[in-house]
């Protein structure tokens, strides 16, 4: 089999706002205006061009989510600047919970919007200019235990509790609602005369900095940062000579900080990131040669219907949402909501969002193939068992699963999660079965590229 020659470029630009912004994650953004930063935010772009001069641009950006309108504008600007068509530009988020709250508190009239568009455009231009002959690649996997956890637990009484859902006080736990995915995937693109580019795919909510993590005695929660992703990248780049692109995997139901049953995982961003990086470094010598093939892309527009099954609870949801916005008290909202079957202030908000939405919803699913390896981009927070199906059933030797990509469909929970009930099911747009249908479409695109 003839090995194809690629050209691979790496571009990275600083995205950190030097002004106070509302931060995403952990409830009401008005309570979390940034007070500086503990790590810088970056937009990283990988340009890959094959022998037929076909190019894809794959981004990983230190923000919490991608937004379709923002993606559309980046694609427009980047196409003007580079000639790469919009459908070949993929933008994924690392999903840090210490980044500007784009798409919610931060809209197109905010200064960060212009900064985001400009920075991502510049990163693409740098990546295109940096393209270097790349005739070899290596890939591999490593299982890393004790650094991410399924965040939903079953008590001995059969109750399901976990992050933002249920009170763990005094409970005895029987286990998790589903198996974890501890697998890290690595792809090394070996360039001529320039640092290699190392792509890493691992899944775990970047929330290590949320609860008591400190740097020189300062609580990190009100500060901008890429969470464990930043020290992870820094440690590998310092010690391997590779340039690193970290791609968040299916972390919809996985947390990286210690929860309820696990007391050993550190809460410190920098220690955690370095420990995770050391696991990746251990895997580098064992990576195996990968065949580099011609570039292929597939795109599918998934059409579904908004879930309106809880529209009858709108008036009750308004009461709980108002209580949540006024007090920010999770426990109070949960107790008041029990009267109506509303589990939290978040749940109330999503009941109102779904009721106000139309009937139909579209989301963009993408796949990229390059010989032995491939990528899929999911515009939502995927559950780990759904990603495991893609990774196990792909016709490629390895498929990276990139989530929070291109658009912001929020959580799409698996069938098993609907059976148990959980925070992510409450915060849904689509109903039961959507996650599994999306997996089918990903596998169909991957199979089509291998046909």
Task: Describe this entry's structure for a reader.
The protein is α+β, with helices and mostly antiparallel strands and 451 residues long. The protein has 2 domains: 388 residues, no CATH class; 50 residues. It has 11 helices and 22 strands. The strands form 6 sheets. Strands 1, 2, 3, 4, 5, 10, 11, 14 and 16 form a 9-stranded mixed beta sheet that branches. A 4-stranded mixed beta sheet has the order 17-18-19-21, with helices on one face. A hairpin with a 5-residue loop joins strand 10 and strand 11. Helix 1 crosses helix 2. The chain is globular. The two termini are 16 Å apart. 51% of the residues are buried.
Key structural traits:
451 residues; nine-stranded mixed sheet; 22 strands
């Amino acid at each position: 089999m003839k090995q194809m020659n690629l050209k691979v470029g790496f571009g990275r630009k600083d995205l950190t706002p030097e002004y106070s912004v509302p931060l995403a994650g952990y409830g009401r953004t008005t309570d979390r205006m940034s007070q500086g930063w503990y790590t810088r935010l970056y937009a990283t772009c990988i340009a890959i061009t094959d022998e037929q001069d076909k190019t894809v641009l794959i981004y990983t950006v230190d923000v919490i989510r991608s937004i379709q309108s923002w993606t559309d504008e980046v694609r427009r600007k980047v196409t003007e600047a580079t000639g790469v068509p919009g459908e070949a530009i993929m933008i994924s988020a690392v999903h840090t919970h210490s980044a500007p709250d784009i798409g919610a508190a931060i809209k197109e009239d905010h200064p960060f919007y212009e900064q985001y568009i400009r920075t991502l455009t510049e990163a693409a231009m740098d990546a295109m200019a940096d393209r270097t002959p790349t005739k070899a690649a290596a890939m591999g996997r490593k299982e890393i235990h004790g650094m991410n956890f399924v965040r939903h637990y079953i008590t001995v009484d059969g109750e399901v509790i976990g992050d933002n859902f249920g009170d763990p006080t005094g409970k005895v736990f029987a286990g998790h609602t589903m198996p974890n995915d501890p697998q890290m995937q690595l792809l090394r693109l070996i360039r001529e005369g320039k640092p290699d580019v190392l792509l890493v795919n691992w899944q775990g909510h970047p929330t290590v900095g949320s609860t008591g993590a400190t740097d020189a005695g300062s609580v990190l929660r009100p500060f901008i940062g890429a969470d464990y992703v930043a020290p992870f990248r820094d440690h590998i780049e310092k010690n391997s000579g590779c340039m690193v692109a970290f791609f968040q995997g299916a972390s919809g139901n996985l947390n990286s900080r210690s929860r309820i049953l696990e007391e050993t995982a550190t809460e410190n961003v920098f220690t955690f990131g370095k420990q995770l990086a050391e696991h990746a470094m251990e895997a580098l010598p064992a990576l195996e040669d990968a065949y580099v093939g011609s570039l292929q892309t597939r795109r599918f527009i998934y059409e579904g219907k908004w879930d309106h099954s809880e529209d009858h609870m709108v008036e009750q949801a308004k009461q709980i949402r108002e209580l949540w916005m006024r007090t920010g008290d999770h426990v109070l909202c949960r107790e008041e909501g029990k009267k109506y079957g509303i589990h939290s202030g978040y749940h109330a908000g999503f009941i109102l969002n779904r009721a106000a939405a139309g009937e139909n919803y579209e989301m963009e699913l993408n796949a990229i193939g390059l010989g032995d390896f491939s990528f899929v981009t999911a515009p939502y927070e995927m559950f780990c068992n759904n990603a495991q199906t893609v990774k196990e059933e792909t016709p490629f030797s390895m498929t990276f699963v990139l989530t929070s990509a291109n658009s912001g469909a929020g959580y799409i929970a698996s069938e098993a999660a609907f059976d148990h009930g959980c925070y992510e099911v409450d915060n849904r747009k689509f109903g039961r079965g959507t996650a599994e249908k999306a997996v089918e479409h990903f596998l169909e695109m991957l199979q089509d590229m291998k046909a």
